[in-house]
Amino acid sequence: MRDFLKNRFEKDNTSDSSLVLKVREENDSDAFEFLFSKYLPVVHKALGRYHLHFVEHDDLLQEARIVCYQAALSYQIGTKASFGAYFQKSLLNRYCSLLRKESALKRKAEINAASFEKLNSDGQFGLKTALSYDNNSLFTTILFKEILNDLQNILSKSEYQVFLLLYLDKADIFEISQILNKSGQQISRLISSCRKKIRDELN
Of the candidates 120, 97, 96, 104, which has an alpha carbon nearest to the alpha carbon of residue 165? Predict the structure, then answer.
C-alpha cells in the first residue's frame, strides 16, 4: 500500500495543498493516507511528549488520524503557516486536552471515592432508602436520595469505581474505559453486574 501511494503521489512531488484539496473536494482516501503517513513522525513526537496513561496507543493514533482529517478540511490554503505546522498545532492541542481531561477525571474519582468511604464508615444511611429506580431502565433513572451507606459491601471494587464515575462524574463508557484501563465491553459488563446487584438488594 505504501509503495502504491508513493508511486501515485511522491513521484509526482504532490504538494500538501494538492493533497488537502483531494481530501477535501474529492474525498480521496489515498491522498489522506499519504498525507497522514507523511506526518507520522510528528504524531510519534507528540505521543512522546504527552503521557496519557489510560488511553491505548492505537486509540491515540486514531485520534491523530481524526485530527489530521479535520485539519485537512479546515486548513486555509495559501496562508504562511504550512499544513504540517497547522496539523502539529492541532494535534498537540488535542492531546493536551485529553491529558487535562484525564487528570480532572482522576482527581474527581479520587475525591468521590474518599468521600464515599468516609460516609460509609459513618454508617448514616441505608441502600434501600438511597435509590429510586425504573425497572425498564435502572441506569438512566437512578436518583440519589441519600448517600449509599453500604455500596462498597454490595459491589466489587471495579463495580464501585464504575458507579462513581458513571453517576457522580457523569462520565461515559469511553471515558470510564480510559480511566480504568478497561475495554468498553468490560465496562458495559461491570455496569450490568452493578445493576443486577442493586436490583437484587432492593428486592
Answer: 104
